[in-house]
Each structure stands twice: as structure tokens, then as C-alpha cells.
Amino acid sequence: MNTIISGLQWGDEGKGKIVDYLTESADVVVRGQGGNNAGHTVIAKGVKYILHLLPSGILWDDKVNVIGNGVVLDPIGLVEEITRIENQGIRITPDKLRISDRAHVVLPYHKELDAAREAALGDQKIGTTKRGIGPAYADKINRCGLRMADLLDRDFAIAQITRRTAEANEVLARFDLPTFEAEQVIEETYRAFERLRPHIDNPIPVLHKAWKAGKSILFEGAQGTLLDIDYGTYPFVTSSNTTAGGSCTGSGLPPTAIDAVIGVCKAYTTRVGSGPFPTGDEGLSEYLHGLGREFGATTGRPRGCGWLDTVLLRFACMVNGVTGLAVTNLDGLDSYDTLSICVSYEIDGTVHDLPPADRSAWDRAKPVYEQLPGWKTDTSSCRSYEELPAAAKNYLERLGELCGAPIAFVGVGPDRSQTIVVP
Ligand code: IMP
Q1: pLDDT at 410
Q2: Does the beta carbon of 112 lie inside 6 Å of ligand 1?
Q3: What mean pLDDT comes out for the span 186-214?
Q4: How far is the CA of 69 from the centre of ligand 1 (A)?
Q5: Cα-Cα-Cα-Cα dihedral of 225, 229, 230, 232, to 10°?
Q6: Is residue 306 a contact partner of residue 395, using CB atoms and an 8 Å limit?
Q7: Number of domains within the chain
Q8: Same domain for 230 and 111?
Q9: Which of 110, 201, 220, 331 could form a disulfide with 380 if both were Cys (CB 3.0 to 4.6 A apart)?
Q10: pLDDT score of 40
Q11: Same domain, 153 and 228
């Protein structure tokens, strides 16, 4: 059974927890896109782990973890992450972590270029994680990027880094941002690369062998559908295909190998960074921040919060081909009397069931809400679907109906035991 986990909102849907849950029955866990802009918090046996680039299967002893070719990989950041996770008692051996030799490298100047582009955009800035993701993907598409395999050819890599550092410095100098010495970039990159070298491989045969042997492969999507470079709220998006298809192109396992797509969404909506957010609600944001919830795992930024938006979810279920929904953070709504669900947008007097492409239309989109009764009960100790209050089940069923996909999982808290499987 090969399954893709996709985020259906703007990232931070709690995918890490669902991935962690499904990892138990998986043999291989794969990241196929994005980079260390992602931040997955997983709580296992009471210990909190924050993963950025490492697939969640790394927390288990018997899983193979693959960082696929579609990922942009910051070697320095990855080594820091490996060290941090190893210090928490997890062993990361070459058998356990395979890194694609085709993955593109994020270099220190990509991060500064990211900052420079944001500065140039002023109040139109994207609100990126400043991890160099956009500039690294831009180099890939411009055919001037550096891949892990290229670092194996030291002379080529040194010439390429030297040339690209000089080009980056020209841009950085214009913004009065720190420039780089090529020698230092090379030295720091190679220091990290040496730690990663035993993990570098062509994982495509590993994945195909696992597929043909009937093993279970789990694809861990990062970010979310509304941050997808094609389907998201462009230009306020990330630079990769975060939707299900990105898992295939980002790993070398074809669409014919995929059996299921689990779409993960929160019981409400959140977004970090800039860009449209029709159902954003200050009251709900304040309430959830007051509970100590909704602060970013990567940047610590408070996330904007809002009501459930099924216009976005309906679209996300379509483009990902969702076969089952995982609704997380249901317990976040436990205290509310009445809950709003956005069922459509009204834009210039016309009702829209799907999100617009036209960026100016987002500013005029008025959410049309349906009100549902809250359950006013603590759900965090519920361990089965039957135990959930009737109003919570009603809310979930309406959500599934509006999105056209069945509910497969419900999350009622951060711990592994707080994931309810819906029969
Ligand atoms: P970038 O991916 O750093 O270029 O940032 C582009 C947009 O994606 C910004 O709005 C970020 O806040 C958002 N973003 C990137 N990664 C994540 C994530 O893992 N969770 C939530 N938002 C993200």
C-alpha cells in the first residue's frame, strides 16, 4: 500500500502526526519536495521532536527514509538537524537515511538572496521562511543549480560555487546585505557534505524494489496545497509542487504506484507569511494563541487563524485526488458555542465554489458561512469516533460532505495516542 500524505491548507495541518501514525505500518518514508522550510512536530512517547528535512520515519529503528530528488537540501542545516535528533537518542545510519544524488543543494548565499528578494518586495513580501528555498529552486529551473551528485565532483563543484557566489554577491551588495567568500562557502558546504556522503545514493531502485516487493511506501508531503507553486495563492506560495503529483516527480515513483492519498487539514484554518486568507479571524487567532497553540515550528511566528474554509478544501481534495481526510486539532474548537464553516465565496455578487486564480479577486472574496453548534466538551481524551460528542461528529460529517471526501482520521491532541481512526 503506497500512500501520499498531502497538506490541504497553507501548511502546518499536523501532517507530521498523521505521517508518524501511518509510519508504523510503512517500510519506507519519503520526502519528495520542499526543504527545511518545513517544520514537523512529532510527539512520540512523550518526547517532542522537530523535523525539518528528515522524514518522520527517522524516529523508528526499522524504517528506510528517503530524501528524494525533488527536495532542495541545505547540507549545513541537515547536519545540524541530524546532530540535534541524534542528541535526543535517535540513531541515524546510512541504511536508515538515503539522500538522492539528484537533490539540489541550498547554499548559504541562497538564504541571503531570499532575504534580498523579500526586502525588495517591501510590503508585498511573500513572508518566506528565509531558508533559501525560492532561490535554490530558481537555480534548478534556470539550470545553474548544484546537485548532491555534483558535489561528488569536487573540481566542478568548486568552479560552480565560485561563479555563483560572485553572481550572488553582486545582488547582495545592491541591498547592503552581507556578501560571501567563495572559499568559506566551499569549506562549510564540504564540511557538512562529508557527514552526509555515506547517505548519498540513487534511491529510485530502492523505491521500485520496495514497490515490486509489495512493501508500504509513505510519502510525507510538506507545506500545503494553497502554497503549491501551481495551485496555491500565487505569488504567496512556496516554490515546489506541494500537491500529490509532486511526490511522484520528486521521488521517481510513478503515479501508477500510488494507492491512496490522505489529505490533512485542521478543523479550522491557519496560515503564516503573507497573502490572502478570506476566513482569517482575529478572535479565533487570539483565542488559540492564548491556549499556547499555533506558533510556527520553523520560525516561531504566530500563525494567523480562521474558520474552516471548504472552498479551499474542496479544491485541494480535487487536485490531490484525496481518498481520505485526516482532520487534526479538533480539540482546538472544544470551547466554542457556535462554529462557522465557509461554504463558498461571494466575489462581486457571484457565488464561487472554487478559489479564483485572479489575485485581485481574493481581496474582494467574501466568505459565505454556515453556522454549526459547538460541542463545548473536552475531546482530547476521546480515543474512538463513537466517543466524540454528537455535535463534533456532525461538524466532521458536514466537512466531509462539503469537500467530497470521507473522514479517515481525527486528531484530538499532539500525542501519538490522540489520533482516532474512523472505521
Ligand atoms: P518559502 O517556502 O520559505 O519560500 O516561503 C513561502 C511561503 O510558504 C511563506 O508564506 C511561508 O510562510 C510558507 N511556508 C513554507 N514552508 C511552510 C511550512 O512548512 N508551513 C507553513 N508555511 C510554510
Answers
A1: 98
A2: no
A3: 98
A4: 19
A5: 40
A6: no
A7: 3
A8: no
A9: 331
A10: 83
A11: no
Q: What is the CATH number of the domain that holds 53?
A: 3.40.440.10
Flag whether the pTM goes above 0.90: yes
Q: Taking 80 as the threshold, does the pLDDT of residue 298 lie above it?
A: no
Residue 131 Cβ inside 6 Å of ligand 1? The answer reads: yes
Give the nearest ligand 1 atom to 272 CA: 12
- pLDDT tens digit sequence for 51-85: 999 999 999 999 999 999 999 999 999 999 999 99
- Residue 9 CB less than 6 A away from ligand 1: no
Q: Which of 137, 272, 301 to mutate to test the pocket of ligand 1 (most atoms within 8 A of CB)?
A: 272
Distance (angstroms) between ligand 1 centre and the Cα of 70 equals 16
Q: Which residues contact 263 (CB under 8 A, 6 or more apart)?
A: 6, 7, 8, 313, 316, 317, 320, 322, 324, 325, 326, 405
Greatest Cα-to-Cα distance within the chain, rounded to the nearest angstrom:
66
Does residue 200 contact residue 148 with C-beta atoms inside 8 Å?
Answer: yes
- Looking at residue 192, its pLDDT comes to 98
Atom of ligand 1 nearest to the CA of 12: 20
Q: Residue 110: CA atoms inside 13 Å, Cβ hemisphere, count?
A: 30
Q: Which pLDDT tens digit goes with each residue over 236-266?
A: 999 999 999 999 999 999 999 999 999 999 9
Kindly indicate the confidence band of residue 285, based on its pLDDT and cuts at 50, 70 and 90.
very high
Q: How many residues does the chain have?
A: 423
- CATH code of the domain containing 166: 1.10.300.10
